[in-house]
Design a protein that fits this description.
By secondary structure, the protein is α+β, with helices and mostly antiparallel strands. It contains 20 helices and 8 strands. Strands 1-2-3-4-5-6-8-7 form an 8-stranded mixed sheet, sandwiched between helices.
């Protein structure tokens, strides 16, 4: 089995990977925080490939550009995890070489592994854990949508001869499908609102009979209660006969290899689709939202993720103390490109409102921006120059103006403008964005 994402290939480990494995696994900042000691030699890495990284669902995480292994990811199945004894549940484990931290690689890899677990392997729940202090692993699980379950105070870590505090999260197939938008059908309709799916989820025979009777009348067809079984148009599991083999929209999308009609260049002109969206504006808006999400992927935000990986907590601490002391303004409070002349301001400049919206859609960047803005609002002072100095006080105004416009008036960004600048927006930012007219 080989799994692929935009940047990555996940494949079985090979003995020829020993050199790359040792290169990253010898780093003392990688293994110990996950519960295993650094590798001591290439020979030890080879032995681990042969005897540890040999599970049925153990994969090397490889860059597409050169094929080298930069990390590991695994679904530990029944008998290989102490988190569950059910055959339809498994545990997710992973680690990544330090040079690749902060680039969104592990969430990308683990997102595909979750899809594989639920769609290909038929899992109903995926578990994952991390030790206290492993904030990177915690953030990966948060990004994947795993929900907190419990904390254990005295977890034995035999490879490190330690006892630690452990945290456990999990995600169900239903939660994953909902978070991933899988309940949005090919046509944009929301399957969570479909009576057939509700009856299936509840296993309600009376509701099945009621839906069958209603649909028989609407479609002038003989629909029986036994046909009312459907987990969702794009979710693994049962389908009604219509959804499974008759629906022209679903059949067209499957034939074209599309995840939804949002990815089709003929979406606006499609007569089959318009028959649905004319009666359900919500379906059209769902498809448009999916197109916006796809457009976000055209922006490379890794420069911000990498920079904030090392400096965000420092910036947050300085703001809490009421005074910016170090240099991080460009990538903590980004501005529209064109305001500054330095190479740094150009590099971290936001290209347009589209990239600003993509920034706000990114879970890490949005969370960090909101956290530091909330700390600004908690300060006693209303003097931006007192906190940031000059000219960074002006940069704050321009950044908040940008994100206020991108968010269409988010009260948090408006609040910062109101507190520190009397509600005035940065005129240069407005001019560049054409919002001064």
């Amino acid at each position: 089995m080989v799994l692929e994402t935009e940047r990555l290939i996940m494949r079985r480990w090979r003995e020829s990977d020993a050199k790359d494995l040792f290169l990253y696994a010898k780093d003392p900042s990688v293994g110990p925080i996950a519960g295993w000691p650094p590798h001591r030699s290439e020979e030890e890495s080879l032995d681990i490939i042969r005897n540890v990284l040999n599970g049925a669902e153990a994969y090397a995480v490889c860059l597409k550009e050169d094929g080298r292994a930069i990390g590991a990811i695994e679904l530990r199945l029944c008998g290989h995890t102490d988190m569950t004894d059910r055959e339809d549940e498994c545990e997710l484990g992973y680690w990544l070489g330090k040079p690749f931290w902060g680039k969104g690689i592990m969430p990308e890899a683990a997102g595909e592994i979750l899809r594989h677990a639920f769609e290909d392997l038929g899992m109903t729940k995926v578990w994952a854990g991390y030790y206290d202090g492993n904030e990177r692993s915690k953030r990966v699980q948060e990004k994947l949508g795993l929900r907190y379950q419990w904390t254990t105070e005295d977890v034995e870590v035999p490879q490190m001869n330690e006892v630690r505090v452990g945290h456990v999260n999990c995600i169900t197939r239903e939660e994953w499908a909902r978070d991933a938008g899988r309940f949005i059908a090919f046509c944009g309709l929301d399957c969570e609102k479909c009576d057939a799916r509700i009856a299936t989820e509840r296993n309600d025979d009376e509701m099945r009979a009621s839906v069958a009777k209603l649909w028989s009348g609407l479609n002038h067809a003989d629909i029986t209660p036994q046909m009312i079984n459907c987990t969702g148009c794009r979710v693994p599991g049962a389908k009604t006969p219509y959804c499974d083999s008759i629906c022209p929209i679903r059949q067209c999308a499957l034939k074209k290899g599309l995840s939804t009609c949002a990815g089709c260049g003929e979406m606006k002109e499609c007569g089959k689709l318009s028959a649905v969206t004319q009666n359900s504006p919500e379906a059209l808006e769902n498809l448009r939202e999916m197109r916006r999400d796809t457009a976000d992927r055209g922006y490379d935000l890794s420069r911000f993720l990498i920079a904030q990986e090392g400096d965000f907590e420092t910036a947050l601490s300085e703001i809490k103390n009421g005074r910016k002391l170090t240099h991080w303004m460009w990538y903590i409070f980004p501005q529209i490109r064109g305001l500054g002349r330095s190479s740094t301001s150009e590099y971290y400049g936001i290209a347009d409102l589209g990239e600003a919206r993509a920034y706000l859609r990114d879970a890490t960047l949005s969370s960090n921006l909101r956290r530091i803005c909330e700390e600004l609002l908690r300060l006693d002072t209303r003097d931006a120059r007192e906190v940031f100095g000059s000219p960074d006080d002006i940069k704050l105004c321009s950044s908040m103006t940008l994100f206020m416009l991108a968010s269409e008036g988010d009260p948090l960004f408006e609040g910062v403008l109101e507190k520190f600048f009397g509600g005035k927006k940065d005129p240069s930012t407005l001019r560049i964005l054409g919002a001064d007219r």
